[in-house]
Amino acid sequence: MSRSSRFITLEARPEPSALWVWAAPLLAVGLTLIAGGLLFAALGKDPVAALAGFFLKPLSSLYGLGELGVKAAPLALIAAGLAVGFRGGVWNIGAEGQLTMGAVVGGGVGLAFLESTGPLVLPAMMLCGALGGMAWAAIPALLRTRFNANEILTSLMLTYVAQLLLSWLVHGPWRSPSGFNFPETEMFGPAATLPVLIEGTRLHLGVVLALVVVGAIWVLLGRSFIGFQIKVMGLAPRAGAYAGFSQRRVIWMAMLLSGGAAGLAGLFEVAGPIGQLQPAISPGYGFTAIIVAFLGRLHPLGIVFAACFMALTYLGGETVQMDMGLPLAVTGVFQGMILFFLLAADVLIRYRIRLGRAASAKAL
Amino acid sequence: MDVETLGAIGGAMSRAATPLALAAVGELVTEKAGVLNLGVEGMMLAGAVAAFAVTVATGNPLLGILAAMAAGMLLALLFGVLTLSLMANQVATGLALTIFGIGLSAFVGRDFVGTPLTALAPIHLPVLSDIPLIGPLIFGQDPLVYVTFVLVGGVSWFLMRSRAGLIVRAVGENHDAAHALGYDVIAIRYRAVLFGGAMGGLAGAYLSLVYTPMWVENMTAGRGWIALALVVFATWKPWRVLVGAYLFGGVTIVQLHIQGMGGAIPSQLLSMLPYLATIGVLVLISRDALRIRLNAPACIGKVFHPES
């Protein structure tokens, strides 16, 4: 009758297991590797060679390591912002749209100052990129606090709106006349482009800045009063309300912070590796960052490690596409799998697995 | 505008509404049992690619539709194992399902991009479908449009009139009480989640077999999320899902017609309309917090563990 089967019983632990909080992601990564090997074998590829090609080969060159940083930085930046909200029970799912608006607004500044060589162009772009993401996240925040509208659905709908807006701009008013009819803007000038840090790679200044921002979010979460309020509201909303914490303020803080981080990440993409605005500026960083946030346990340090791993799935997908002719979509399959395995492994944090019926189970 | 154009618009409207109504009515049953599955978009994509692949391989769209429902149910089963048996967070698991569905469908469908397929033909009842306006509207649609009406009616009857439906609602309203009365909360929720998956898959099949008879990566374009919004719009009442779906179908078609007339408004801005309309409607419905609280199943999204 009950949920527990005859053979396996889940017995609640008196305390959540501190060990499994961090062991579960490792278990999830291990299970993903096994499932990935099975997937490759099913496709008729040697699983060991394919996994090595997927997870090791991209790291075997300086260029590959640089690419890891280039892809991990936006993931870590967005995920750190999202984690703030997830801790407080605010579900911002529209980071992809906020990233797009950051690229649009910040990139727009870059296009307005195409000829400029001033040192303030890049900082202005970054500021406007963050503000663009914030403004886009402010809409679901307003609709939630003022009209009670579910932020999951509104932030997601706005993602489609943002992408269509970008598409309109690069197909229409902002299209470069010298772009051979491709839907893209002019390339940003040198003053509007993030400098490459290491010769022979694409590792740019934005990667370092992203890490700095992640560190700042860590300090904010761990040391500030608002960080404490967010945590309390997520764990015990009633206790928080009793203490006089405002849910409204937590929602606004979480949405603005995550939107700003996503917007900045979008600006880093267009002012860094891409160098212009195009219809597609992100391979789904805003969605993958949701996985990164959970895989990193909503903790900035964990998020940086998780971002590196997820960045590797993008690189691995590209490698096996080129080397073995496997479709790029294998990346998405890996990303979905790891989140599934993590969510499954998380049961071990709060429950002990017992074989046979639990002795303590109430007779019902 | 003449009668024939009106009939064509009406037909196009129901084609746009049908996948939304199917996915939303499945999610409605899931939510009525107290489970929030945000993976509708992923289940729809899995259904769309399964329907397309099987129809191309067998030449039989009926088999394609069955495969789509099976694919949707398979993803729903995965969701059920994680959230019901392993008590994972429903929001996070639903998102995982969508991310996985997008990746998996693109992966499976890579060989089908650009493959042509003959759309599922509308049924033409002789004489009746020749009546102007109402003929093509009421008697000349493809079979799934009618199936959708029957399904919504059936779900409405089941939830509101049948004993089993009462139990489903009880499980969604208060799982502890339902458990104390001896009902198997988890088993009932599994069935509701699987029904939602089958409907999501069917909605996907409609997209790839009827609406645009082809396979394109991510071809649902957010319809799964609109379906989730529709459930809120309908305040968890099946017939209102149908009304909402036709409303949104209407917005989609009006938008496409303005694009077709080659107006001065850029197509991208017009394409935003369905999403903006969804936000607008969500705001209108949700601002009455009391109504949402009275209608939403009380246990929605909450983890159930019988021994705790």
Summarize the structure in words.
The complex is a heterodimer of chains A (364) and B (308). Chain A contains 14 helices and 2 strands. With 364 residues, chain A is mainly α. Chain A has a domain at 74-299. In chain A, helix 12 packs antiparallel against helix 13 (330-345). The model of chain A is unreliable at 358-364 (pLDDT under 50). Chain B is mainly alpha-helical. Chain B has one domain: ABC transporter involved in vitamin B12 uptake, BtuC, CATH 1.10.3470. Chain B is built from 14 helices and no strands. Chain B has helices spanning 3-32, 40-58, 61-85, 90-108, 134-139, 143-161, 163-173, 175-180, 185-211, 223-233, 238-260, 267-271, 273-286, 289-295. In chain B, helix 1 packs across helix 11. The longest helix of chain B has 30 residues, at 3-32. The model of chain B has no long low-confidence stretch (mean pLDDT 88). Classes of the chains: A mainly alpha (364), B mainly alpha (308). Chains A and B meet through strand 1, helix 6, helix 11 and helix 13 of A and helix 3, helix 4, helix 10, helix 12 and helix 13 of B.
Structural descriptors:
heterodimer, A: 364 residues, mainly alpha, two-stranded antiparallel sheet, globular, B: 308 residues, ABC transporter involved in vitamin B12 uptake, BtuC, 72% helix, transmembrane (chain B), membrane (chain B), cell membrane (chain B), transmembrane transporter activity (chain B)
